[in-house]
């Protein structure tokens, strides 16, 4: 799909380019913050899985008076399936760490930058390359959130906030149950800049209160989830654990599903798309490789 | 499977269709398939489904037999509720019980379980902590067990289960590095010396595990998208991909010689949409099974890889002319054999049977040649056939005709049954009568009958002489003796149809003494001139540019409805192929009046299947012609290249054909274009029916191919160098076990011949399970009742209207499909599948047309709104007399014809505007004594926030814009309608209330729209409709066809008026309102139930006064956490019960319960109660449909056998696949 047809399809793609955001997802964090005010008073923030970096841009903007925060560019996260060589372009006041969010060393690196203090907020907009088997994609996404939760328990101060992208699939209630063990309030937020037709949503987990006997560890991470864990969360029926839903953003603002008239000029994206794993295959295609027929 | 039972609500799962995620051959005869939660067993030789068991509550990811002491499982599920479920289902069937089972988990650790005691004996985690998309074991003891882990960091790691490092982690002893994307699949070969891995980078890599680490893998490119899995065995690699194909590759590692040999041996395209998810090979390595996201399961013959793709000349028989002296001599005494100055070579040839061809030499010799026995015999020589000879043979193989450059026709007996005679041969039912059709360039067509009844004195009779339009270069013919219709296709893409209704020609020429029988064209003889006027027949139908500007290369005819052979015999289907790479199917109806006259049947048979061949002089004598120049050989389902790109009011080809209808003397003939599809970017040269399957033959680049249109795959192809002027193909059966392909290249004849014994492949049916949409379905609509069903032209009495269950679906794959569900059957019946929409279909609605017609409206992206005419009949024409009989109708298969009828003009500024939803009903109520029948109300909501009301006029097939409005300022998601006080509902009320003197009341039309703003707007559009009807009636029935394009549009938009703003608005949701249903509850009250992206369900109760315009909302009740995810479907079962479906894959049944409240209480009157819930196996369930449905007691229940037990609600939830539920309240 060319950039012009993306422009036509999605108003926020266009707005992001106009307003200088690296990706349309910047609006999602902005809208979540407008609703929950989670960035107010924040001094230290951690952005996991930061490429291409639009959420870091938002953090820079909103936290500009409190410059002491780190940005972990989570390139080699074990949950990420993006190629390891891509690095988001540096941003001012942002410290980039290329680490693995399942490693103790990464935790120490972050805490080192914060001079022993804990973060006020951790955000994670990471998602795997979906393969199309929804069970699998939802599972991988849940694993990514759990890995983010795990590192969060090392670096977040009590009372802090975690925001992460989720897929509202068939087993999302399991994820809610797990998050509610660590946070007082868990809300499912859907920014208006996220398409109505998308399965994507965000969990806003507020007031971090780890269980009393909980000791953060990287060696025995919180992995799998089960319906049997919790009497109040069954596969079917009325006792499923459902967290409140909040639609964020200006109700009278732009609509990501609506078709808007196109302005004449199509802008180039600020951050080119990360290179695709099939680039060699595409290059071969351009060389007419697939059409060669032996004589 | 029964689920929760509360308040007498039962939910039964009736049928599941969805991706086939795993396949495994139990033995050569039995194939196991993991299909959603079901484990199915198929009997391979017949294709029968042996058994289907509900194995698991969750997705099956792998099916693995446990004959060895250790097998593998990858548990990739989010839930641990049943971590061993896959293996336990396997153990229940297996023969030998191994003690231990090793399980590889997605987080790169292994557990070894004693499954008899269900205890974990051993556990080890790999030193590389990484999530895996794939893993594979090799080895069968703990000691030699190796796991190959496919990491998300593009590497394959091999590690031993028992070898730990100092921290206790499993040690990786080999890393296979090189992939540029995530590893999706890994397999070992039999002895473990090779590993094949497939990846996001679209490559297959074969690695040697026994060689040193620096060994480079073999890299295979070819798939056009991600690759999911690849089998490795013997000489083959078999890969499956997101690109919907399965490819067979040569398995060889020594790629030192980078020769030009292709690695890809075959590309099997048997699935639709996206993704082939599973592949398996049978134990004898002959049959490969593939399973798709489309729910299809296909079998492929591995032997056919070489058998059906002929790449080498070694597989062809090269036929040389015998030594010249040998065949010239025997005939020399009978002719003055003055040899031409040119050299002698093969000039032409025809297929006689599966071992014999008849060839013509440049010198004019006709030679019969048996390439099996290598025997030849000279049949005939005529110097007039030198340098030019058009030949054709009869299907029976008895007769060969030659046409000379001088206009002679020469009929030869292949087996010397009769003396040489004179071309186009049409078989008749009388084996001794053949029709011959001849045509000379720029001249008339003769239809002749060859009568061989008296074998010693065959007769040839000229039945008709037909004049062709000027410059009509005949390239293809077909003749239907039953209807006396002759179809002629020209090189300039004209199709001319003649009705040969006149009496046959009185003159008969036969020269029984002579060696040859000649019929001369008038250029050479004046014999015919005096007959010319009386036998000159002109076209009754003439179409131009049917295949663009390309030649019509072949015409085939089929009598009757292919779905119901015993009915509709007065229907003739016409198939044409063209050099545009496409084929077209036409239908000629009501032909009974054209049945042949008795005198014409004297010799002609009752029915003639047609085989048409033509003679013409072509200026182009090149051996090889270049076919298409384009690069991709895509069997594109039917993208329509010639579709008018006009933005507005693209009208269907059907009308253009029928509007071209010319009435010639006695009767009109109307022809409808039923279907057209582009098959190749090369040429289509022939259409034939073999075993009743439609085969399309053509050339693309350097190959000849045979494409099975019914089953959508390339059956056979030969690297023959390109398109050839002389070529013939004949197959005796649909598997082509007995077949011949012959062509002349560079003056030499090449024969490909196959005489295989039947059923060598080990299976009869290559489709074990039918396909559904291969991508997400977005719309589903049951055929509502009452409908009128026709049988043998008569309407079936209304009281017998027990309905067959039929629904239409559409989705991201842009296909419009119709299905029938027959209770008890394990599969849906596929009624039709139409690719006409350019992009995704979002909504489908039915409407009842005038007379017999059912109309279907579909809409979606690119502002497409189309109308289809659906004809439906029962497959069997048994009399359905009593009650017992009509019950059958639920289980009677129906036949469907879905014709393209009209397209709504696109008038938005942005072509990307989507039509999100439509709401349709026929305006069949009286308006000031006007007849409004044939008018349909179509409300459409657009993604740019516009609501438009169109009126579709069935008689003119035009959409008239009644009015538009914007209100939400957001993308509108849904529109529904409610008609109050129309005749039908009035009648029902009268029946119910027995109120004879109902007051003359005005009808009202209320529209409901909802958008991403969470609001529901209620519009009263009655006045607008009334105004429209007042003005429209005065100006209707003007033929619009005479208008120019722009004028036509202004005519269609002339009634447009702005609609009044909504009479009422309420906000029920925080964000997008995804689904809505409206229902009248009693006389003046109705309820609106909506489901939102915000997990909430809202019920609004509204009250209307019929006299005034007032519309009052009584209250809105919200259920905030109805589901944990976006709600995608709602259906109201009765006044207090409704069903919701959501992306969380649950189906919930709710009851609205009236609360006891004190008058002072501010509490609302109603509360919701979840009364039943069921898990939905369909992923991404984005649409829901429902119908009332009658169930019949089973045979087991003897007391009430065959009786109607109860009316149930059938719910269909669709997304990636479909699942049917039955709800009994």
From TrEMBL, chain A:
Q: Which GO terms describe its biological process?
A: cytoplasmic translation; rRNA processing; tRNA nucleoside ribose methylation
Q: Major location, coarse class?
A: cytoplasm
What terms describe the molecular function in GO for this protein? Answer: tRNA (guanosine(34)-2'-O)-methyltransferase activity
Enzyme Commission code: 2.1.1.205
Q: Which residues form a coiled coil?
A: none
Give its localization.
Cytoplasm
Q: What is this protein called?
A: Putative tRNA (cytidine(32)/guanosine(34)-2'-O)-methyltransferase
Q: Which organism is it from?
A: Ambispora leptoticha
From TrEMBL, chain B:
GO BP terms: tRNA methylation
Record's SUPFAM superfamilies? WD40 repeat-like
Write down the InterPro entries for this protein, in alphabetical order: tRNA_Anticodon_Mtase-Reg, WD40/YVTN_repeat-like_dom_sf, WD40_repeat_dom_sf, WD40_rpt
Looking up Pfam families in the UniProt record yields: WD40 (PF00400)
Region feature Disordered, mapped onto this chain: 597-644
Stretches of Acidic residues bias are at: 634-643
- WD repeat ranges, renumbered to this chain: 176-207, 276-310
Compartment(s): Cytoplasm
- What is the superkingdom listed in this entry's lineage? Eukaryota
Where would you say this protein principally sits, based on its record? cytoplasm
Q: Where are stretches of biased composition, namely Basic and acidic residues? A: 616-633
Keywords, comma-separated and alphabetical: Cytoplasm, Repeat, tRNA processing, WD repeat
- One Gene Ontology term, aspect cellular component: cytoplasm
The entry assigns this protein to a family as follows: Belongs to the WD repeat WDR6 family.
> What is the protein's name according to its record?
4567_t:CDS:1
């Amino acid at each position: 799909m060319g950039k012009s047809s993306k422009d036509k399809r999605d108003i926020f793609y266009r707005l992001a380019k106009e307003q200088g955001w690296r990706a349309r997802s910047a609006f999602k964090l902005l809208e979540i913050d407008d609703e929950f005010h989670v960035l107010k008073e924040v001094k230290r923030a951690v952005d996991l899985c930061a490429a291409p970096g639009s959420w870091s841009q938002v953090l820079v903007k909103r936290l500009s008076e409190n410059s002491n925060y780190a940005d972990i560019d989570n390139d080699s996260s074990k949950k990420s399936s993006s190629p390891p060589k891509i690095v988001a372009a540096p941003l001012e006041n942002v410290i980039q760490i290329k680490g693995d969010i399942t490693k103790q060393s990464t935790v120490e690196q972050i805490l080192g930058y914060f001079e022993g203090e804990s973060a006020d907020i951790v955000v994670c907009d990471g998602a795997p390359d979906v393969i199309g088997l929804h069970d699998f994609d939802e599972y991988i996404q849940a694993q990514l959130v759990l890995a983010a939760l795990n590192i969060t328990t090392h670096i977040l101060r009590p009372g802090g906030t975690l925001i992460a992208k989720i897929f509202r699939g068939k087993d999302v209630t399991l994820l809610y149950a797990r998050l509610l063990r660590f946070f007082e309030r868990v809300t499912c937020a859907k920014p208006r800049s996220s398409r109505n037709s998308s399965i994507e949503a965000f969990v806003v987990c507020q007031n971090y209160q780890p269980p009393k006997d909980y000791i953060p560890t990287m060696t025995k991470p919180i992995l799998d989830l089960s319906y049997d864990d919790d009497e109040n969360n069954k596969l079917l029926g009325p006792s499923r654990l459902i967290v409140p839903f909040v639609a964020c953003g200006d109700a009278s603002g732009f609509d990501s599903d609506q078709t808007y008239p196109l302005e004449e000029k199509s802008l180039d994206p600020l951050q080119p798309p990360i290179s695709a794993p099939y680039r060699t295959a595409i290059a071969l295609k351009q060389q007419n490789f697939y059409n060669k027929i032996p004589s | 499977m029964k689920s929760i039972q509360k308040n007498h609500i039962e939910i039964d799962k009736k049928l599941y269709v969805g991706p086939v995620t795993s396949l495994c051959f139990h033995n050569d005869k039995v194939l196991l398939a993991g299909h959603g939660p079901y484990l199915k067993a198929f009997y391979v030789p017949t294709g029968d489904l042996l058994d289907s068991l509900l194995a698991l509550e969750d997705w099956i990811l792998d099916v693995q037999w446990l004959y060895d002491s250790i097998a593998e499982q990858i548990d990739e599920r989010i839930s641990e509720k049943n971590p061993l479920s896959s293996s336990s289902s396997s153990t229940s069937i297996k023969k030998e019980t191994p003690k231990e089972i090793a399980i590889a988990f997605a987080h790169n650790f292994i557990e070894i379980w004693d499954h008899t005691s269900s205890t974990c004996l051993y556990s080890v985690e790999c030193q590389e902590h990484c999530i895996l998309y794939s893993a594979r074991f090799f080895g069968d003891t703990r000691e030699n067990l190796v796991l190959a882990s496919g990491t998300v960091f593009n590497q394959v790691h091999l590690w031993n289960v028992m070898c730990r490092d100092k921290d206790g982690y499993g040690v990786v002893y080999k890393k296979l590095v090189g992939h540029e994307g995530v590893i999706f699949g890994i397999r070992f070969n039999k002895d473990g010396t090779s590993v094949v891995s497939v990846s996001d980078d679209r490559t297959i890599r074969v690695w040697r595990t026994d060689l040193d680490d620096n060994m480079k893998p073999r890299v295979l490119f070819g798939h056009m998208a991600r690759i999911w899995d690849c089998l490795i065995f013997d000489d083959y690699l078999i890969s499956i991909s997101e690109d919907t194909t399965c490819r067979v590759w040569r398995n060889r590692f020594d790629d030192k010689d980078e020769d030009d040999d292709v690695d890809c041996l075959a590309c099997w395209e048997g699935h639709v949409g996206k993704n082939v998810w599973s592949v398996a090979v049978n134990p004898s390595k002959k049959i490969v099974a593939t399973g798709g996201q489309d729910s299809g399961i296909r079998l492929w013959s591995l032997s056919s890889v070489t058998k059906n793709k002929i790449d080498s000349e070694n597989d062809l028989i090269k036929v040389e002319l015998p030594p010249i002296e040998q065949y010239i001599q025997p005939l020399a005494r009978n002719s003055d054999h003055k040899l031409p100055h040119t050299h002698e070579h093969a000039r032409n040839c025809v297929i006689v049977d599966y071992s014999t061809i008849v060839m013509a030499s440049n010198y004019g010799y006709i030679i019969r040649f048996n390439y099996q026995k290598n025997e030849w015999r000279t049949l005939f020589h005529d110097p007039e056939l030198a340098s030019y000879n058009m030949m054709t043979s009869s299907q029976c193989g008895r007769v060969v005709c030659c046409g000379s450059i001088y206009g002679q026709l020469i009929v030869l007996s292949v087996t010397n049954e009769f003396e040489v005679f004179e071309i186009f041969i049409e078989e008749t039912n009388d084996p001794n009568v053949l029709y011959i059709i001849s045509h000379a360039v720029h001249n008339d067509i003769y239809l002749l009958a060859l009568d061989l009844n008296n074998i010693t004195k065959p007769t040839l009779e000229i039945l008709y002489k037909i004049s062709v339009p000027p410059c009509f270069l005949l390239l293809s013919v077909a003749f239907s003796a039953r209807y006396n219709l002759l179809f002629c296709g020209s090189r300039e893409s004209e199709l001319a149809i003649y009705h040969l209704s006149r009496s046959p020609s009185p003159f008969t020429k036969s020269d029984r003494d002579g060696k040859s029988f000649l019929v001369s064209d008038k250029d050479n003889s004046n014999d015919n001139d005096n007959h010319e006027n009386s036998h000159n027949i002109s076209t009754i139908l003439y179409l131009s540019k049917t295949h663009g500007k390309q030649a019509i290369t072949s015409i085939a005819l089929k009598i009757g409805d292919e779905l119901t052979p015993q009915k509709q015999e007065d229907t003739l289907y016409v198939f044409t192929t063209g050099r545009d790479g496409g084929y077209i199917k036409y239908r000629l109806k009501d032909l009974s009046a054209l049945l042949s006259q008795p005198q014409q049947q004297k010799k002609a048979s009752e029915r003639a299947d047609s085989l048409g061949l033509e003679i013409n002089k072509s200026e182009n004598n090149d051996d090889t012609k270049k076919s298409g120049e384009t690069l991709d050989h895509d069997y594109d389902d039917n993208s329509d290249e010639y579709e008018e790109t006009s933005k507005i009011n693209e009208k269907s080809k059907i009308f253009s054909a029928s509007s071209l209808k010319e009435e010639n003397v006695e009767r009109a003939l109307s022809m409808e274009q039923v279907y057209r599809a582009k098959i190749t970017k090369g040429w289509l040269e022939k259409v034939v029916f073999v075993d009743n399957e439609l085969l399309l033959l053509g050339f693309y680049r350097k190959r000849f191919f045979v494409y099975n249109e019914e089953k959508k795959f390339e059956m056979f192809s030969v690297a023959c160098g390109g398109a050839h002027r002389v070529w013939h193909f004949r197959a005796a059966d649909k598997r082509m076990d007995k077949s011949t392909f012959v062509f002349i290249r560079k003056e030499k004849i090449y024969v490909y011949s196959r005489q295989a014994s039947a059923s060598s492949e080990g299976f009869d049916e290559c489709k074990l399970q039918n396909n559904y949409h291969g991508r997400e379905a977005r719309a589903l609509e049951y055929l509502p009742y009452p409908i009128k069903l026709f049988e043998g032209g008569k309407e079936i009495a209304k009281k017998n209207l027990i309905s067959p269950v039929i629904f239409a679906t559409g989705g991201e794959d842009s296909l419009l499909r119709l299905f029938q569900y027959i209770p008890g059957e394990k599969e849906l019946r596929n009624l039709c599948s139409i690719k006409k929409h350019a992009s995704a279909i979002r909504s489908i609605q039915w409407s009842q047309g005038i007379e017999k017609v059912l109309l279907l409206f579909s809409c979606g992206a690119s502002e497409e709104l189309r109308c289809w005419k659906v004809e439906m009949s029962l497959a069997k024409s048994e009399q359905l007399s009593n009650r017992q009989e009509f019950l059958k109708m639920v289980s009677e298969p129906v036949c469907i014809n879905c014709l393209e009828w009209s397209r709504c003009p696109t008038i938005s500024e942005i072509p990307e505007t989507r039509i999100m939803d439509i709401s349709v009903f026929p305006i069949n109520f009286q308006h000031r004594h006007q007849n409004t029948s044939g008018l349909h109300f179509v409300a459409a909501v657009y993604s740019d926030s516009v609501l438009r009301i169109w009126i579709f006029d069935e008689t003119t097939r035009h959409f008239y814009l009644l009015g538009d409005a914007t209100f939400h300022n957001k993308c509108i998601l849904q529109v529904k309608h409610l008609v109050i006080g129309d005749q039908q509902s009035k009648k029902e009320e009268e029946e119910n209330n027995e109120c004879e003197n109902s007051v003359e009341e005005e009808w009202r039309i209320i529209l409901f729209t909802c958008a991403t703003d969470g609001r529901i707007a209620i519009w009263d559009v009655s006045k607008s409709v009334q105004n429209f009807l007042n003005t429209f009636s005065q100006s209707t029935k003007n033929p619009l066809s005479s208008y120019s394009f722009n004028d036509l549009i202004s005519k269609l938009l002339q009634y447009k008026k702005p609609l009044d703003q909504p009479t009422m608005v309420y906000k029920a949701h925080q964000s997008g309102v995804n689904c809505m249903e409206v229902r009248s509850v009693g006389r003046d009250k109705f309820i609106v139930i909506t489901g939102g992206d915000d997990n909430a369900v809202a019920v609004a109760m509204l009250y209307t006064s019929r006299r005034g315009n007032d519309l009052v909302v009584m209250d809105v009740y919200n259920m905030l956490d109805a589901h944990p995810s976006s709600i995608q479907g709602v259906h109201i079962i009765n006044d207090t019960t409704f069903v919701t479906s959501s992306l969380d894959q649950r189906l919930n049944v709710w009851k609205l319960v009236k609360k006891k409240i004190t008058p002072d209480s501010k509490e609302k009157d109603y509360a919701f109660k979840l009364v039943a819930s069921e898990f939905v196996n369909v992923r991404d369930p984005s649409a829901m449909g429902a119908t009332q449905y009658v169930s019949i007691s089973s045979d087991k229940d003897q007391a009430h056998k065959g009786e109607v037990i109860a009316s149930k609600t059938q719910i269909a939830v669709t997304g990636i696949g479909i699942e049917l539920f039955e709800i009994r309240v």
